[in-house]
Design goal:
The chain is mostly beta strands. The chain is built from 2 helices and 13 strands, in the order βββββββαββββββα. The radius of gyration is 16 Å and the shape is globular. The relative contact order is 0.18.
Amino acid sequence: MHLILSSRFVRNTIMTDESGQVLYKTSTPCRFGSRTTTLYKVVPNTDPDDMQNHMEAVGEIEWHWIAPSIMRLHGQEMTTNTFIPCHGFMGRKRTFTGPDGLPYRWDMDSWIVRLSRNDAARQELARSHRQSLGIIGPRRDPSFDIDPSLMHMVDMVVLTFVYVEQLRINREK
């Protein structure tokens, strides 16, 4: 699955497929204090009289600066320090266990984030791509590729991507 982001700011973006169909949206209202990013997913409409698709909230990230942030996915609440703890030098790795019981690992590089299974093979399963303005090479919007083997947990992959990409952006500043 190839998701094209409308903005490099992952807390407020629309994610579309290559044909332009909206699949996900993130929204983070500007408020004082803690902010909450909501992840919406397009839900096909089954009503033949209303042909518009609808957005359904599937997840949230309640951002905290001192205490651990809180993630919610399909009604399940998890603190980030237990669900997706940091590892490695400078905390640039985040690990979690998927609903399939397998361990996964996000690596935050200087410019991108990559998801792999947290095993000896370390097969890359998802990866972000930065925006290119086209000065060198073709112009392209920021995007995110997800391996088809993760479709059973795509909402979790997208929510954790938003979390680790925002952490990477914060470190880049």
